[in-house]
Amino acid sequence: MTKLILKYWIIDLLVGFVLYVAYIITIMNSSASGNGLEATILYFADIVLNIGFSLLYLAAAVICSFTVLLNFIREIRNSPFFSWLSFSGAPVLLIGMFIASLSIDGYHYSENVMTKLWIFALLYPCITTILYVRFRKQYRNSIAFR
After folding, report:
1. Less Cβ around it within 10 Å: N or C end of the chain?
2. pTM for this structure?
3. How far apart are CA 23 and CA 53, in angstroms?
């Protein structure tokens, strides 16, 4: 059982890192609008802002991946609801609070920044839910063989 839980924890951690790298690549592919010194300064400021948001996103994904380890506790592992909370509940809650606070306080950020952040923030809980379904399937199969 330990190998199964650690396997899904590592996969969850890698998913968070891959989404972080994809977000960085996405923001680096944007180009400066206009020519001149002011456009260049605004372009670099936008990149720094995006990198700051992406680091917050990476920190949230890493913190949320550690909740998968709660499945070492038998009562959580045996309960489908609590097991789902350990996989996807924390990411939905933490990233949801993060996005809500940015939406409330981030009205002065560009819409492009917020759209990219929303997309990548919603991808993570969706992927963790898929991981949860696969974990439960393998867990049920491992119990059936005992």
Report:
1. C
2. 0.75
3. 10
